[in-house]
Amino acid sequence: MKRTTTFIFILLLAAGMMAEEAIGGFGFHIGYAAPTLRINSPTTKTLETIPMNGMKVGFSYDATIVKGFGTTLGLNYTFGTYNSKWTKISDLTTDETRYRDTYQGLEIFCDWQYKFEIAGDTYLMLYTGPTIQCHLSLKEQEYIRSSATGSTSKQTRYGYEYRDNESFEDYKRVNVTWGIGAGFQYRQFFVRGGYDFGLFNPYRYDTFKAMGITTSDYYTRGRFDQWQIKLGVYIWQN
Q: Fewer CB in 10 Å around end: N or C, the chain?
């Protein structure tokens, strides 16, 4: 992962140097984000999908290096949350449980793109490129509702939370994704949407036994993907 991250930084640096002499614009954007955690559990080898819904906000610099071909560099803040439905804990009780996952992160992205001019000041864009994610928070809380009292208790499930002590972090702080997408631009206004594929296992440890969750030797595996669509405007262009 360190080699891949270093390579991504080199791409960002190269794109930034090429963009210095390019024609481009600086803008900001806001939109919908769907961070999706695909992980296996400590007790099964099947993948569990946690589809979160939230928002994305940030800014970007768009540069056309040669006619049609260019790059977009930027920074995003992403928030997502997921709430499961109430379900019975077991057939032996009428108590119910539900889960709430929340995520916050910062992203540095570098998209290589090509713009097709379809009319005056109107473009269709296709892009692909890497994103470096810094996960600020990622946790899952379990709510238990008592059928006898009607009260609800809450606890943070072990294995789904970043903790103050680094040795208790169950997920990696840094992730790298590769995205593909398309967009549309009319004058200074634009819309971009696409999908980012996680390139690495998000777990910090190789097995659940090493994480201290269970005695299981199941290998950890998974991805951290993301759907997104952004609406934006260039506030400066050259």
A: C
Question: Residue 19 — very low, low, confident or very high, per pLDDT cuts 50/70/90?
Answer: very low
Instruction: Report residue 147 as tokens.
Output: 């059928």
Which residues pair with residue 98 across a beta bridge? Answer: 143
| Angstrom distance (rounded) from CA 178 to CA 107 | 12
In 3-state terms the chain splits into helix, strand, coil percentages (rounded to 5) of 10, 65, 25
Residue listed under structure tokens 């992403």? 78
CA–CA gap between residue 237 and residue 70 (Å, rounded): 14
One-letter amino acid of 228: Q
Q: Residue 120: which domain range?
A: 2-237
Predicted confidence at residue 155, as pLDDT, reads 74
Question: The domain spanning residue 87 has which CATH number?
Answer: 2.40.160.20
Identity of the residue numbered 72:
T
Residue 222, CB-side half-sphere exposure with 13 Å CA sphere: 29
Residues counted in the chain: 238
pLDDT over threshold 70, residue 122: yes
Q: Which helix (H) or strand (E) holds 61?
A: strand 53-66
CA distance 227 to 238: 31
